[in-house]
From TrEMBL:
The lineage of its organism: Bacteria, Bacillati, Cyanobacteriota, Cyanophyceae, Gloeobacterales. It comes from the Bacteria. This is Putative restriction endonuclease domain-containing protein. InterPro entries: Nuclease_put_TT1808 (IPR012296), Restrct_endonuc-II-like (IPR011335), Uma2 (IPR008538). Residues 11-87 form the Putative restriction endonuclease domain. Pfam families: Uma2. It comes from Gloeobacter kilaueensis (strain ATCC BAA-2537 / CCAP 1431/1 / ULC 316 / JS1).
Length: 101
């Protein structure tokens, strides 16, 4: 189960905090720590990244990354897998970023 902190903070303040293990996410002003992944989950995550990269990376279409922080729409999440176009991490309006912190 995810545990949220009490009180709301701004996204900018959240992004200045040190990274946690497992990762914490920022949703609607609250900090929520992701659950610790289990072995099978981690293996599936790695296999899926490998499959996506095998098909898309060679053609220079996209890259799949595990546990990469993505901030957009006033949120900052760490999806299990993110697939980004090869052109970069900025969205059409430049308001999306995905990066390692």
């Amino acid at each position: 189960m995810n545990a949220a902190t009490t009180g709301l903070i701004a996204l900018e303040a959240f992004l200045k905090l040190p990274e946690t293990k497992p990762a914490s996410e920022y949703i609607d002003g609250e900090i929520i720590q992701k659950p610790m992944p289990k072995g099978r989950h981690s293996r599936l995550q790695a296999r899926l990244c490998t499959v996506v990269n095998a098909g898309a990376e060679g053609q220079k279409i996209a890259y799949a990354f595990p546990e990469r922080r993505c901030s957009f729409g006033g949120r900052s999440i760490v999806p299990d897998i993110s697939v980004l176009g090869q052109g970069g991490s900025a969205g059409p309006a430049g308001n999306r970023t995905c990066s390692h912190r």
